[in-house]
Amino acid sequence: MAKKLINGNYAAAFGAKLARAEVIAAYPITPQTAVVEQVADFVASGEMKARYVCVESEHSAMAACIAAASAGARTFTATSSQGLLLMHELLHWATGARTPVVMVNVNRAVAPPWSVWADQTDSISQRDTGWMQFYSESTQEELDTVIMSYKVGESPDIMLPSFTTEDAFFLSHTFEPVEIPSQELVDGFLPPFRPEIRLDVENPRGFGSLSMPHQWYMELRYLIAEAMDRARERILRVEQEWKELTGRSYGGPLDEYRTEDADVVLMNAGTAASTIREVVDNLRREGKRVGLARIRCFRPFPTEEIRALGRRVHTIGVMDRCYTFGDGGPFFTEVKSALYNLKDRPAVKNFVVGIGGRDITMKTVGKLYDNLFRIKAGGLDSEKEWIDLKRPEVG
Amino acid sequence: MVKTPVPAEENVAPGHMGCPGCGACLALRLALKALGKRTIMTVPACCWAVMPGVFPYCSIQIPVLFTAFETAAASASGVRAALDAKGQKDINVLAWAGDGGTLDIGIQALSGAVERRDNIIYICYDNEAYMNTGIQRSSSTPIGAWTTTTPVGQTRAWKSEPKKSGVEIMAAHRIPYTATACVSYPEDFVKKVQKAASIVGPKYLQVLSPCPAGWKSDPERSIQIGRLAVESTVWPMYEVEDGVYTVRKPAKKVSVKDYFRTQGRFRHLGEKDIEEIQKTVDAEWELLLKKETMTARK
User: Exposed, middle or buried: residue A81 (CB in 10 Å: 0-12, 13-18, 19+)?
Assistant: First the structure.
């Protein structure tokens, strides 16, 4: 295996190349552009035997990917923020059509005001589309997850789309040494995509026609629900296979760090986890029992893993780099919901952090752990708090 | 003109859910006779999204991918890309959409696919309004027409804007082949579809498809109404191949009034209103003939 110094965007492109994506349809948007440029280079050089459709919008990118996948091709696209939001209608379509499209989304803030920096509102807004959602912490994880998500999504009993995210700039533009698996290794891991049911002139079928309330619509939706539930187990199994081949794994859907005996745990999705690990190590050296649980997979949601954590931890802080106006951080509300039926529940507090790319520093994370220890000693001070908020002077 | 026999092959089975006298039904039947079984089609929201029937039945006997409203062209591009990736060259990819799905909500994707020179056949069956949702105006609704969103009423609020020209927009893309057609001329339509299939690159046909429900016309007169549309040059029949215009001149010319009075959707128009429209139709026809002269190969 060769090591290369690459950023998250290039890692995503290498993932698509090694997975032998056959049709790419993509539209440029900052900070995703390096993904589509690198894939275009791979195709232009002949390293990647794929059709590259330079569509005129993200909406058409997803439409072309769904259609190509319906015709039996392995597809890839990448987007970010407004582009993902424009795709929204077709994200639902990809799921209903049971097309295992694989996408990379660079998590970028939603306008206005314009901001191209890290924020997870774009992908969280796709919660109910039926896509598997993976949140990467590192460049290596991004590459590996792209390859693994093909294997999970294309399983004949799953057939669901998935996207992997990179926090804008923190992952999309940060260079790290990355092991590039050999093509032989990936070929051995990921068989070609050959769906039995596809657009085929030898065996004509209609895909996605009309269904009446008394007929099959509800049952078709139930099949999707079952497939998504099966994906929980499949994600773990596929990651285990990958580990056996490469030695690398990422902790399944909930990646826990030093939580075994932890009193307080911070939960987070995305790149801030690396900063949190540093703080955990520092606090552990001071004898404080702290841990991190990184939500790596938002859909399917790691409900059982969170419950297992909740049974042994006193206080949980959930960090959200996004917000649901009128409620709270979406990771927070989902974590709380997972814990609700436990007999003895930990206290859970929501920390809204890093919105619009604001840096989440070790100092910030240290404050959050201090807060969790105060809650452990004296009870919940408030249910949610926006952290490092500037207060403009009035007058 | 040499007549092309219409193939006997049927790829649209009886049992569809089209209305009596539906031009769009005939249009697809003819198009798929012309293209044959080695064809994959994409169908966005439109009458034909419903007409093939209810899952698990489908009256169209080739592979059909039903897609979102604005994605007929992009979906066809995706199918073509997949076939190309797999080395399957001998399959037609057909995008089949109504006029709203083509000229309103789908025009961006269509423009993109044509500019990219994607090897697809795009056929807009033009019934001149959103008929599947209940006769709302589209940009392809002709001037003067009643629809449920141009309801005439006391303020005479019929559609006051001229019809958008899909074929001219496609010609401006320097598309290899584009043409108008009408279901009342089946041999001509079949010939144009076959010609489109023989050309590599994007092709765009717009086939006028009378809609008795939306045009407020007698179902048994759909073919006659289509002929009157052509003979009045309200719907001129022409092709643009690599920029060269070829116009089919009607054997006999009838007036706009002759065409309009077959349909309830124009019933509210007075003599003066129709005279104004006649002037526009005549001017457009003259312009079209000039384009034919100007672009004739020397």
Answer: buried
Taking residue A9's Cβ as centre, other Cβ atoms within 10 Å add up to 27
What is the model's pLDDT at position B5? 82
What's the average model confidence in pLDDT over B137-160?
Answer: 97
Cross-chain Cβ contact A65/B63 below 8 Å: no
Residue B111: closest C-alpha in chain A: A56
CATH number at residue B66: 3.40.50.970
- The CATH number of the domain covering residues in A254-386: 3.40.50.920
| Nearest CB partner across the interface for A64, out of B55, B63, B74 | B74
Residue contact A60–B37, C-beta within 8 A: no
pLDDT of residue A310: 97
Q: What's the pLDDT score for residue B1?
A: 55
What's the rounded mean pLDDT across residues A161-165? 98
Number of domains in chain B: 1
Give the residue-averaged pLDDT of B16-27.
96
Tell me the nearest-neighbour CA distance from B265 into chain A, angstroms: 30
Q: Domain residues of chain A, as ranges?
A: 2-246, 254-386
Q: B84 with B121: CB under 8 angstroms?
A: no
Angle at Cα B42 formed by Cα B39 and Cα B46, nearest 5°? 130
The residue type of B256 is: V
Contact criterion met (CB < 8 Å) for B115 and A50: no
Give the distance from residue B100's alpha carbon to the nearest chain A alpha carbon, in angstroms: 17
Contact at 8 Å (CB) between B291 and B245? yes
B interface with A, Cβ–Cβ below 8 Å: 37-40, 42, 49-50, 52-56, 58, 60-68, 70-71, 73-79, 81-86, 91, 108-109, 111-112, 115-116, 118
- Pick from A25, A56, A199: which is nearest to B65 by CB? A199
- pLDDT average, residue stretch A38-65: 98
Q: Is the domain covering A2-246 a CATH 3.40.50.2000 domain?
A: no
ipTM here: 0.96
